[in-house]
Design goal:
Layout lengths: L1 H5 L6 E2 L3 E2 L5 H14 L4 E6 L4 H6 L7 H17 L3 E4 L4 E5 L13 E4 L4 H9 L2 E3 L9 H15 L7 E4 L6 H10 L3 E2 L8 H19 L2
Parallel strand pairs: 1-3, 2-3, 3-6, 6-7, 7-8, 8-9
Antiparallel strand pairs: 4-5
Length: about 220
């Protein structure tokens, strides 16, 4: 991401997703702020709790408590980004006053997009995120239903629906289905790419750009 930030000017950069339940929040806050500075405020912080229970345990995370841990680590990072001297005291995250720089370019912090299927993923996104990343083909995959559920959950907690974007992860590479997502009010789609060289990846990017460009009008 740092390398991409250095050679681009307009491209959004993001994680999809960072497993914050397996990462130290103080160190992660520093990394996020640094990438946001290097990109001049183009970073989107996609987060999640993960699914691999054995992997979580290897990182010292109790899988049964991972969602509470994720919330506390996000709250702790928000405090670090916003305050000159930050501290956090929770059930699973606890540290005294610290000073950390740089601060993010985006204020009060880069947008936090929470990955996860409906309904739990949406509830967490509305509670402490700025966006929700449902996975296409997992759980309830009705885009109109996603938008309605987002609006209802935001109304329940007193947030504006526009403050919680919906970005579909692993979106279908089909023009008709992409048009359905756009018509339903989905804000962003994300496609997968193979771990191959430029001779394979660049033609795929050109094709995907054409699909999305057709929906946006250019």
């Amino acid at each position: 991401l740092a390398a991409a930030a250095a050679v681009t000017d307009r491209l959004k950069l993001g994680t999809g997703i960072a497993l914050v339940v397996q990462r130290d929040p103080i160190h992660t806050a520093k990394e996020v702020a640094t990438i946001d500075v290097l990109s001049d405020g183009r970073f989107l912080f996609g987060i999640g709790a993960g699914w691999n229970l054995e992997e979580m345990a290897n990182h010292g995370t109790d899988p049964a408590r991972r969602f509470g841990l994720m919330r506390e680590r996000v709250e702790a990072m928000k405090a670090i980004w916003a305050a000159e001297e930050a501290e956090y005291h929770g059930d699973q995250v606890d540290f005294g006053p610290i000073v950390q720089n740089p601060k993010p370019v985006q204020k009060p912090h880069p947008p936090i997009h929470v990955g996860g299927v409906y309904p739990g993923g949406l509830r967490r996104a509305v509670r402490y995120g700025d966006g929700w990343m449902p996975i296409a083909g997992r759980g309830d995959s009705d885009p109109g239903g996603w938008v309605r559920a987002r609006d209802e959950e935001c109304a329940r907690v007193g947030r504006a629906p526009a403050a919680v974007e919906i970005s579909v992860y692993a979106a279908p590479q089909d023009p008709a289905r992409l048009a359905d997502l756009a018509e339903a009010g989905i804000d962003r789609v994300m496609f997968g790419l193979p771990p191959e060289g430029p001779e394979t990846v660049l033609p795929i990017l050109d094709r995907l750009a054409g699909l999305v460009g057709g929906l946006s009008g250019g």
